[in-house]
Amino acid sequence: MFNSLQRVSAIVRKELIQLSRDRMTFGMIVMIPLIQLILFGYAINTDVRQLPVGLLDLNQTSQSRYLTQAVEATNAVRIQYVYYSLQEAENALTQGETKAVLHIPADLGQRLALHPNYPGNAGRRANWSQPSPILPVAQWLVDGSDTMVTAALKSLRAMPLSEIANQFVRQPVASFEIVQYFNPEQRSAVNVVPGLLAIILTMTMIMFTAAAIVREREQGNMEFLITTPVHPMELMLGKIVPYVIVGLIQIAIILGMGHLLFAVPVRGGLLTLLAAALLFIFASLTIGLIISTVAKTQLQAMQMTVFILMPSILLSGFMFPFEAMPAPAQWIAEALPATHFIRLIRGIVLRDASLTGQTFDMVWLLGFTIIGLIFASIRFKKRLD
Amino acid sequence: MRKSIETPTDSKNPVIQTVGMTRRFGEATAVNQVDLNIQKGMIYGFLGPNGCGKSTSIRMLTGLLLPSQGQISVLGYKLPEEAELLRPKIGYMTQKFSLYDNLSVEENLNFVSQIYGLSKQSAHTRKEELLHLYNLNQYRSRMAGSLSGGQKQRLALAAATLHKPELLFLDEPTSAVDPENRRDFWEHLFDLSNAGTTILVSTHYMDEAERCHALAILEKGVKRADGTPQALMDNMGANVVELSGPHLRELKSKLLLSDDVVSAAQLGTRLRVLIRDHIPKPEKWILNLAPQCEAESVRPSLEDVFVMATGHHHDEPAITEVGHVQ
Predict the structure, then answer these.
(1) Are B103 and B207 part of one and the same domain?
(2) C-beta atoms of A220 and B111 within 8 A
(3) The pLDDT of residue B316 is above 50
(4) Edge to edge, what strands does the sheet with B43-47 contain?
(5) Does A227 sit within 8 Å of B63, measured CB to CB?
(6) Does B127 touch chain A (CB under 8 A)?
């Protein structure tokens, strides 16, 4: 038992010395979270604003100009291009010059006169016995392949038209009131930064451990190491402990900088946070270990890391809401430690949720680590064949 | 039956014993039915060209590779089942430098002593002892990766012997080392052997093989001959005659036509000819074939043994039985 501890600590110490001499890796430990945090914190924005669009005004009256101004006033779009024929507008869409074009038909005045949203029309309409067909006042030509843009423009569908008539806009009484807890200003960064913890840790933890073991095999150190009395489990533990420390440093960087740059709150207790983070770090390191028992070269280890990383980014709830995914995708997501961690960390950081309410995710991560460690040390043979 | 020259030492206390040790990689057989019996305190050599199965044999004997067939017993432990029990008692110096390039000499030794579970006190004493013994004291804080070939090799030997193993495996330890360092290295090996360590060393250098107490000649995974260097030379089944005279190149081709000439190799102005030992007076016999030359009987070398054991010009039963050689 004592010998076993001594061997684990020998490997840990050796690994730390090597890590401190490997400037490149050392730099990556700090720079990867820092750069990605700044990059994604500013860039990822699911709230579409000031989208540059085109205008095709076939009406060319004061009414059409008012309509255009009203659309711009919503702040959702900003008119950047002007076209003079439908063909030209469609061409621009095809060429990708713009994602959407506001098409105002020549008969705008007529359409407005019939439209129920146009002030003064509502009362009149009720008396008409044989209504002529009511048409929307104008049209949006949208590049439907971009669902985010389409969704943003769909929100303009029921835009009030009172403004065009130069009348005071009467706010309609909403059917539902939406009370926004935890992120009242609707800033994406609040949701992105905690999620980014999961993504960055998935990437660095898996990659570093997998590479650390595969490198020993590639450089021939392993042939010596496996003739010594070291037990596979001791080797595995000794290899992951230094990276647990690395993981904690990265968490401190991301949450600290997230707080400074994006005012992301850390509402939960630090101990709760530490517990959840450790569980996830161990789970990720275990994946790295399993990869290291399969990969023959560092390049293969890298490729396998990407294989885990991609679904972790796309399915874990980091980018798209987990609940909105189809059931099979949810099953896959449930198998990824990142999914469980994102649930945990968002709960802790943003909502100060207690861990007792999230037992399932905690137990899952713990179980994953234990089973993974056993699996990796069975797979890791102290042999060359 | 395989022809094998008995080693003169007593065979009651084998450190390594194998019967029919075989290892196949897919279709290829890397080690084929090798029987070994290596005594305590010996320096035992594996002599053979690259790819003859030396490394594969050593890896099976250290428990790193599973044998496809055959029994292996090392220090009384049955392999591969009891490999873990064997590990603390053996030292292994790999062919390629396998310590950490980005750790210093001292850090490497510290690491190895912790892995072998040495106490702090004895680890320190042993480290200082080895640093002095292997002339590494002035390089103790240098990174292992920046050492010269000879220094690396001494560090690897220090690491492999740090826990005072009973049995030491050295896989081509001198392949990256100049001749002077090689000589020094062998002095260290003899010191270790004197202290009771059994050493198994693989090499493709004849001069190194000659220093071994006993050796096995391996070729294409088959043990062609084994014994002490002297016994191997005495019983090689041929006499060696050196010829000097004109037109050695032509003479060589002419001599090789004879079935009784195993090989003829030019060494500067002389031609070294191996003649089968059923020819009673080889000097006289050869002068009939080469009348203008002078002939002199010389002492056989291990290289001659190697040629006899592995060359393409002989009819040893062991060879025809395996059927590798035409």
Answers:
(1) yes
(2) no
(3) no
(4) B90-93, B167-171, B198-203, B43-47, B214-219, B222-227
(5) yes
(6) no
Would an 8 Å CB–CB cutoff place B116 in contact with chain A? yes
CATH number at residue B282: 3.30.70.100
Confidence of residue B10 (pLDDT cuts 50, 70, 90): very low
* Tokens matching residue A340: 């469980």
What are the helix (H) ranges across A74-130? 86-95, 108-114, 121-127
B205 in reach of chain A (CB within 8 A): no
For residue A224, list chain B residues with Cβ-Cβ distance below 8 A.
92, 94, 98-99, 159
Q: Do both B138 and B77 map to the same domain?
A: yes
User: Do both B75 and B188 map to the same domain?
Assistant: yes
Contacts of A381 in chain B (CB under 8 A): none
Question: Mind spelling out the 3-state secondary structure of A319-335?
Answer: CCCHHHCCHHHHHHHHC
Mark whether B42 and B176 lie in a shared domain.
yes
Q: Is residue B267 part of a domain?
A: yes
The SS3 call for residue A56 is strand
Does the CB of B83 have a partner CB in chain A at under 8 Å? yes
B134-140: list long-range contacts, CB under 8 Å, 24+ apart: B134/B158, B134/B188, B136/B105, B139/B105, B140/B104, B140/B105, B140/B106
Comparing CB atoms, the residue among A18, A225, A384 nearest residue B59 is A384
| Residues in chain A, pLDDT under 70 | 1, 45-47, 120-132, 165-172
Q: Are B3 and B318 in contact (CB under 8 A)?
A: yes
The better pLDDT of the pair B188, B290 is held by B188
Rounded Cα–Cα distance for residues A108 and A125 (Å):
18
Question: String of b and e for B8-33 (b: at least 16 CB within 10 Å)?
Answer: ebeeeebbbbbeebbbeeeeebbbbb
pLDDT digits (tens, 9 = 90+) for B12-55: 678 999 999 999 998 899 999 999 999 998 999 999 888 889 99
A75 alpha carbon, distance to own chain's centre: 24
Contacts 24+ apart (CB under 8 A), A41-48: A41/A189, A41/A192, A41/A193, A41/A196, A41/A258, A41/A261, A41/A262, A42/A189, A44/A188, A44/A189, A44/A192, A44/A319, A45/A188, A46/A148, A46/A188, A47/A186, A47/A188, A48/A76, A48/A148, A48/A149, A48/A151, A48/A152
Whether B228 and B89 map to the same domain: the answer is yes
Check if the beta carbon of residue B221 is closer than 8 Å to that of residue B246.
no
The pLDDT tens digits for B251-293 are 888 888 888 888 888 888 888 998 888 888 888 888 888 888 8
One domain for residues B188 and B243: no
Amino acid A372: pLDDT:
92
Domain A51-165 belongs in CATH node 1.10.357: no
Q: Give the model's pLDDT for residue A233.
A: 85
pLDDT(B323) > 70: no
Q: What is the pLDDT of residue B2?
A: 42
**CB distance B278 to B271 below 8 Å:** no
Domain membership of residue B223 as a residue range: 14-233
CATH number at residue B179: 3.40.50.300
Instruction: Give the start-to-end residue ranges of the domains of chain A.
Output: 7-44+187-379, 51-165
A-chain residues near B69 (CB < 8 A) = none
Residue B80 lies in a domain: yes
**Residues A229, B116: C-beta atoms closer than 8 Å:** yes
Contact: B98, A220; criterion CB under 8 Å:
yes
Q: Is B7 a domain residue?
A: no
- The predicted-structure confidence for B205-239, as pLDDT tens digits, reads as follows 888 899 999 999 998 889 988 899 999 988 888 88
What would the two tokens of residue B183 be? 């000589």
Residue B325 is assigned to a structural domain of this protein: no
Vertex A295: Cα angle to A291 and A299 (nearest 5) = 105
Chain segment B139-185, per-residue pLDDT in tens: 999 999 999 988 999 999 999 999 999 999 999 998 878 888 888 89
